[in-house]
Amino acid sequence: MTVTVWVPGDAAALALGAEAVARAIRREAGASVVLRRNGTRGLVWLEPLVEVETPAGRIAYGPVAPADVPGLIAAGFLRGGEHALHLGHIEQHPWFARQQRLTSARLGRIEPADVAQYRAAGGFRGLERALAMGRADIVAAVTESGLRGRGGAAFPTGIKWKTVLEQPSATKHIACNADEGDSGTFADRMLMEGDPLALIEGMTIAALAVGAAQGWIYLRVEYPHAARVLAQALDAARGAGWLGRNIRGSAHSFDIAVRLGAGAYICGEETSMLESLEGRRGEVRVRPPLPAVKGLYGQPTVVNNVVTLASVPGILTDGPAAYREFGRGESRGTVLLQLAGNVRRGGLVERGFGLSIRELVEDFGGGSASGRPVRAVQIGGPLGAYVPASQFDLTLDYETLAGAGAMLGHGGVVVFDDTVDMAAMARYAMEFCAIESCGKCTPCRIGSTRGAELIDRIRESRNAAADLALLDELCDTMISGSLCGLGGMAPFPVRSALRHFPEDFRPRAGRH
Predict the structure, then answer these.
(1) SS3 label, residue 503
(2) DSSP assignment of 63-113, as one string?
(3) Are 408 and 401 in contact (CB under 8 A)?
(4) For residue 17, how many C-alpha atoms fall within 13 Å in the half-sphere facing its CB?
């Protein structure tokens, strides 16, 4: 009798030693084990997280090191036996049980590119329903759900799709921006590596909704594991008739190609991504026209990120009203929060909008990994604002954060303890913008370089009032004059650091 053991094969688990653990299990257990490779459940602080199928369900152990395997075998872990690393049913773990998993519901439960397992776990039901609906009805369902783009801009998805639907062009495109480049973000990668068929299903539903025949996944080159799994999943979907010509015997045809970017942060911006897809240097396009009107190759294009598109199948499956039940205000549904930085329990948390920063950092994160007080978090990537500990009762939704001068962005939350130098972090925002700027507009290209220089001068001088005023004017110019969010948002971390941590900008000891 063989026992099925699940060992994650995604990048997060592999980075923490999952491959060596898998080899050790094969070596110690031999032919008595069938080893299956899933994606991470998102509890990164417990990776490698190994699960064993038993009559009582899947029993988890973690974090497992290769040296632990002989002891686990001796303790009867293939039967779910007790051991110091025994976690029980992972869905019942407090860190997991407090979540509301919709978009990430299948992560860690299935082999990523297995169509049969995907279907058994509820996959392709949304696409089946979409195949029986009219285009306008699909768009109306997505609109009614309240889904907004999860890539940062938070634009209503249904409105974007409706704009593309209404264009008279005979050729339209679906472009998935998978160039996940924000610091502390990994939700796109985890979905692509752990549940890629959800992205494929969501893109196909989008194609049915607007009348597109071709889809594109613009994947960052730093994600080789995602590229491999996506290729497998695309082949599997085509082989099972869920992608390609005459999908499931219908009159609809749609296929998807993967294109690798070259590591440019600016290509996370939709028009720069389109330029790169067309084979040119990634530079921001002047708008209007919007990509929904004139996008890839001059044709109407839906541009959404991975989380947005992977959320669509569930909306079609359960109905838009069920999705709207989660969240608050104009922030409907769930958000995939990525907790990273100086934090004890980092990983992926999916909850309805409205979780407080304090709950995320303290209840889920367990405070700082260093054991020191948490001083601040940065929300929304390297260009997101810094939120001080005094404001940790703010809730994680679009409206609340905007009212506090912050933004949710792609949902990355990076934690800093009280040793952080906030002036250095503010300077890094300007330096990062200077390095990653496409160079097309002067406020971003020149302003970011001058901003870094100004922060240096402020910290070197005993009379910094004039330079502080000049820095504030520069921030206004960058926000108002930049062509895209790179230059327009670089002032967010700078201004938030100045506002909440002015003491860090005082002249350094021994400097004049």
Answers:
(1) helix
(2) S--GGGHHHHHHTTGGGT---TTEEE-GGGSHHHHT---STTTTTTTS-TT
(3) yes
(4) 17
Confidence tier at 508 by pLDDT (50, 70, 90) = low
CA distance 308 to 493: 25
pLDDT in the model for residue 510: 43
Residue with tokens 């939700």: 187
Q: Tell me the per-residue pLDDT of 244-276, one tens digit each, with 9 for 90 and over.
A: 999 999 999 999 999 999 888 888 899 999 999
**What type of residue is 154?**
A
Q: Which amino acid is at 278?
A: E
Percent above pLDDT 90 for the chain: 83
Q: Give the residue carrying structure tokens 């699940």.
A: 6
Rounded Cα–Cα distance for residues 485 and 82 (Å):
52
- Measure Cα distances from 462 to 126, 245, 365 in Å: 63, 70, 39
pLDDT tens track for 95-141: 999 999 999 999 999 999 999 999 999 999 999 999 999 999 999 99
DSSP for 156-200, written as a single string: BHHHHHHHHHT---S--EEEEEE---STT--HHHHHHHH-HHHHH
The residues, any chain, with a CB within 8 Å of residue 414's CB and separated by 6 or more, are 183, 184, 340, 341, 377, 378, 379
Tokens 């509820």, residue? 122
Residue 373 CB partners (closer than 8 Å, separation 6+): 389, 417, 418
H or E stretch at 36: strand 33-36
pLDDT tens column, 201-216: 999 999 999 999 999 9
Helix (H/G/I), strand (E/B), else coil: 505: helix
Q: How far is CA 315 from CA 117, 396, 409, in A?
A: 20, 22, 22
Residue 329: how many CB atoms within 10 A of its CB? Answer: 13
* Coil vs helix vs strand at 115: helix
Say if CB 226 and CB 113 are below 8 A apart: no
CA 335/CA 326 separation, integer angstroms: 10
170 Cβ contact list (under 8 Å, min separation 6): none
What is the H or E stretch that residue 126 is in? helix 125-131
* Residues, the chain: 512
Delineate the domains of the chain, giving CATH numbers in brackets: 3-97 (3.40.30.10), 115-323 (3.40.50.11540), 327-417 (3.10.20.600), 422-505 (1.20.1440.230)
Amino acid 128: pLDDT = 97
pLDDT of 183 reads: 85
Dig out the tokens for 346 from the structure: 């980092």
